[in-house]
């Protein structure tokens, strides 16, 4: 399939994909808004009893390198427990990274103190999954949407704030007259619009949407997806769209990153990753997505993976996908694969099938693969 | 797909009215369909369309205090809606298996997997404990659970979501039911696990000739497993027919809207998605005419505002199965 992004209005805005060779920083920083290097979020695993001894480490995010370019939508996909939400949170330091760095517009945010972090957070917004849980039921829409304005001291007068709230509600397709209603008076889709208005209140550059459409009905999902895309174009937002829904991600994203067990295992232009993935995990994931065409479904070859995802507290050595990979071979347990350019321009995959590249596993790390 | 002359399940004019604090709710309004042996019927609709309530009603699982169920539902010729509670239990247990969306709520957290399976097997047949346990292990192996003997002694929380749902399916299949009802059974699961489960059900179905009612909002899943599709909206069936007819040649504006609203992995088009404006109607406050009228982009017939269009044949496929839609719209 041809790269549909070469033509059309997005290509002129985004960086030309052909320039990129390596995710690890050969591009000028000017194009990248948010960048993670070797990012780790490890949680201690504690035993039950009174002593609460640390018995292990849960590697929720385990060495992620990722660049999010200014003005693009980066789709982040993966199955439950792969660490995609934790990664989104770690980029905004809503959970503290335990290793690696996050750079936001050239500033290393991992070293910032609370006050500096708060100022920076105005430039980043978050839309959460469940619009029933993420809005305070005792606060009106006006109170919810104007809170960020107060926190960041953005609009001083009461009248100015009211005008801004009306503007924000209009922006997300709600009638400003609803500002004094409570969340329970709205449908799920409308609540999600309120959540988006709140996230946009601080005029952010960067918006993280964490499963923002997962709890909505199909016909309402489409409304919210269209809204997000329109807003992005209009406001020049940079979007991290986290979702387990590959069809939706393929639809909204300029580029797609695929996570497995705490690591980004493939990243590249949406058309390339969506149609010609190079990492066997991405291939299996895509082949498992049912499409609403009976004739296509009947003839499609489905790659059914064996077994379950290993626990992030017990990550296989070397390539973490090797225990379920249909193509695993000798180097997989011994070399931790690095992202390498393969396939379309700008496409990177962490897989030894395209050449053994990566960090050799130290002997004591090498644990045998769990039995099937 | 096989069509035997007498269908396994024959639902006629099923109506469910619920008493709610906001007044009576017409949750299901005259639903009629059949399920043949070995056939998969997908019931599609958004939240509040009445798809779950319609199957709970079939099995007598709605509390009689709040629910009034009328119509008939004949399983192997016997009406489920009029039989005594004792008879219903006799028929339902071995005859019908059910799988709900959330495996954690269908399993008892304080009993081992083995106990829950053995209970199901022994409740409907004279089987010794040891034989039931052996059969339980066999079932777990059949649903693809690794190390079934050990799994029998585990508790639900020790298993992953996909493994739990497989256990629930094993329980549903324990007595070789002639009818399996799955209500959003794979919705909470990851796509790779969903693929495993769908494979599994298809395999068991072709082996035992089980009739399946698969309730889902995922039209992709429908395309993969269904023989026939029934689209529900506002408590009514607004369109039904073979899976190819309904998904490839949708006739009702709602079905068309639903398909248009779906981002499509198989297509490179990344333009705006078609949307269905507004939200589904509340069952306590249904519109007087066509249930879809308030959101309908067509509204080509003035009767739509005041009358409910009946399900009428819009075409037929090869096997002579009718394709029906409740619409007066000629062209969308």
TrEMBL record, chain A:
Basic and acidic residues bias locations: 1-24
Highest taxon, organism lineage: Bacteria
Annotated PROSITE patterns: ABC_TRANSPORTER_1, ABC_TRANSPORTER_2
Molecular-function annotations in GO: ATP binding; ATP hydrolysis activity
InterPro entries from the UniProt entry: AAA+_ATPase, ABC_transp_ATP-bind, ABC_transporter-like_ATP-bd, ABC_transporter-like_CS, Oligopep_ABC_C, P-loop_NTPase
SUPFAM superfamilies tied to this protein: P-loop containing nucleoside triphosphate hydrolases (SSF52540)
UniProt keyword annotations, A-Z: ATP-binding, Nucleotide-binding, Transport
GO BP annotations, alphabetical order: peptide transport; transmembrane transport
PANTHER family associated with the record: D,D-DIPEPTIDE TRANSPORT ATP-BINDING PROTEIN DDPF-RELATED (PTHR43776:SF7), TRANSPORT ATP-BINDING PROTEIN (PTHR43776)
Family from the record: Belongs to the ABC transporter superfamily.
Entry protein name: Peptide/nickel transport system ATP-binding protein
UniProtKB/TrEMBL annotation, chain B:
Domain named ABC transporter: residues: 9-259
Keywords in alphabetical order: ATP-binding, Cell membrane, Membrane, Nucleotide-binding, Transport
Molecular-function GO term, any one: ATP hydrolysis activity
GO biological process assignments: peptide transport
Pfam families reported for this sequence: ABC_tran, oligo_HPY
The UniProt record lists the keyword ATP-binding: yes
Family to which this protein belongs: Belongs to the ABC transporter superfamily.
The protein, known as: Peptide/nickel transport system ATP-binding protein
């Amino acid at each position: 399939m041809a790269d549909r992004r070469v033509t059309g209005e997005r290509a002129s805005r985004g960086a030309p994909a052909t320039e990129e060779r390596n995710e690890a920083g050969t591009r000028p920083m000017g194009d990248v808004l948010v960048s993670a290097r070797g990012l780790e979020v490890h949680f201690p695993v504690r035993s039950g009893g009174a002593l609460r001894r640390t018995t292990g480490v849960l590697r929720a995010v385990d060495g992620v390198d990722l660049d999010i370019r200014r003005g693009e939508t980066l789709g982040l996909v993966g199955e439950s427990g792969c660490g995609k939400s934790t990664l989104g949170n770690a980029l905004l330091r809503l959970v503290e990274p335990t290793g690696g760095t996050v750079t936001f517009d050239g500033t290393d945010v991992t070293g910032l103190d609370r006050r500096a972090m708060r100022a920076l957070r105005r430039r980043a917004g978050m839309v959460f999954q469940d619009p029933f849980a993420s809005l305070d039921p005792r606060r009106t829409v006006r109170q919810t949407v104007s809170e960020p304005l107060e926190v960041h001291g953005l609009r001083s007068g009461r009248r100015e704030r009211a005008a801004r709230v009306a503007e924000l509600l209009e922006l997300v397709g709600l009638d400003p007259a609803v500002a004094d209603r409570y969340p329970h008076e709205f449908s799920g889709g409308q609540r999600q619009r309120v959540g988006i208005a709140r996230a946009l209140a601080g005029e952010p550059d960067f918006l993280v949407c964490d499963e923002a459409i997962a709890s909505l009905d199909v016909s309402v999902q489409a409304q919210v997806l269209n809204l997000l895309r329109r807003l992005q174009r209009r406001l020049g937002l940079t979007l991290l769209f986290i979702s387990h829904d590959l069809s939706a991600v393929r639809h909204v994203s300029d580029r797609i990153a695929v996570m497995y067990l705490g690591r980004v295992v493939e990243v590249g232009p949406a058309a390339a990753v969506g149609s010609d993935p190079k990492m066997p995990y991405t291939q299996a994931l895509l082949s498992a997505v049912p499409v609403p065409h009976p004739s296509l479904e009947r003839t499609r070859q489905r790659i059914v993976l064996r077994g379950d995802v290993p626990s992030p507290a017990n990550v296989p050595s070397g390539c973490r996908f090797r225990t379920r990979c249909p193509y695993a071979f000798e180097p997989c347990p011994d070399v931790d694969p690095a992202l390498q350019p393969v396939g379309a321009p700008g496409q990177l995959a962490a897989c030894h099938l395209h050449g053994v590249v990566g960090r050799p596993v130290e002997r004591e790390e090498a644990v045998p693969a769990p039995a099937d | 797909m096989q069509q035997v002359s007498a269908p396994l399940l024959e639902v006629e004019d099923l109506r469910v009215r619920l008493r709610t604090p906001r007044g009576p709710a017409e949750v299901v309004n005259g639903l009629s369909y059949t399920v043949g042996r070995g056939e998969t019927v997908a019931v599609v609709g958004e939240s509040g369309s009445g798809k779950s309530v319609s199957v709970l009603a079939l099995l007598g699982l709605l509390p009689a205090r709040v629910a009034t169920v009328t119509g008939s539902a004949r399983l192997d010729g016997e009406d489920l809606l009029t039989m005594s509670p004792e008879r219903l239990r006799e028929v339902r247990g071995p005859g019908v298996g059910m799988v709900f969306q959330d495996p954690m709520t269908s399993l008892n957290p304080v009993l081992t997997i083995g106990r829950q399976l053995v209970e199901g097997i022994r409740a409907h047949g004279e089987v010794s404990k040891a034989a039931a346990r052996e059969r339980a292990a066999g079932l777990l192996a059949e649903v693809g659970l690794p190390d079934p003997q050990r799994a029998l002694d585990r508790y639900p929380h020790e298993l992953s979501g996909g493994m739990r749902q497989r256990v629930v399916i094993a329980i549903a299949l324990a007595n070789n039911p002639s009818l399996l009802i799955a209500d959003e059974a794979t919705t909470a699961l990851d796509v790779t696990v969903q693929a495993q489960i769908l494979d599994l059900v298809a395999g068991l179905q072709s082996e035992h000739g089980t009739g399946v009612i698969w309730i889902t909002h995922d039209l992709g899943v429908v395309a993969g497993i269904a023989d026939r599709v029934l689209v529900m909206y506002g408590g009514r069936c607004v369109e039904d027919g073979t899976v190819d007819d309904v998904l490839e040649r949708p006739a009702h504006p709602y079905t068309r809207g639903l398909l248009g609203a779906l981002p499509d992995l198989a297509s490179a088009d990344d333009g705006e998605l078609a949307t269905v404006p507004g939200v589904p109607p509340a069952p306590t406050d249904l519109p007087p005419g066509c249930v879809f009228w308030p959101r309908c982009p067509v509204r080509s017939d003035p009767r739509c505002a005041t009358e409910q269009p009946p399900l009428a044949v819009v075409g037929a496929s090869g096997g002579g199965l009718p394709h029906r839609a409740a619409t007066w719209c000629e062209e969308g």
